[in-house]
Amino acid sequence: MDRITDELTLVNSSSLTAIGDTSISFTDALGSATNFRLVVTQSGQQLFRGNDFLSSRIGLLDYDFYASNGGATANLADVRRINVELTIQTVGGYGSVPLRAEVFPRKFMYTNFR
């Protein structure tokens, strides 16, 4: 979760290239096109950053995108806040750890935000 939120905080307003419920694509701080995405396989769900494998113990990955007025948006140009929900399954199936974070990407102009 830290890696996702740290990188999305550094995203510029024009750097988002695609958004969805289980993936977000952007140009990172080094100028490389990348994404954080959930991949469903026969053995379960896996989290990737671009082609880099991050975890196979994913129970949930969900992104929600909000405009400056606090309403949900699917328009890249209107995104001002990103809600990230991530659930990690424990080793041995003893439960799960739900994580949630709100990310305010930098260089976005905030007016009338609620």
Structure description:
- The protein is mostly beta strands and 114 residues long.
- It has one domain (2-103).
- The chain has one helix and seven strands; from the N terminus they run H-E-E-E-E-E-E-E.
- The protein has one helix at 2-9, and strands spanning 16-19, 23-27, 33-41, 44-49, 52-66, 81-89, 96-103.
- Strands 1-2-3-4-5-6-7 form a seven-stranded antiparallel beta sheet, covered by helices on one side.
- A hairpin with a 3-residue loop joins strand 1 (16-19) and strand 2 (23-27).
Radius of gyration: 14 Å
Span between termini: 24 Å
Helix/strand order: HEEEEEEE
Estimated structural class: mainly beta
Any idea what the shape is? globular
Number of strands: 7
Low-confidence stretches: none
SS element count, helices: 1
- What percent of residues adopt helix (DSSP H or I)? under 10%
The main β sheet shows up as: 7 strands, antiparallel
Task: Please tell me the overall pLDDT.
Answer: 89
Domain count: the total is: 1
Q: How much of the polypeptide forms β-strand, as a percent range?
A: over 45%
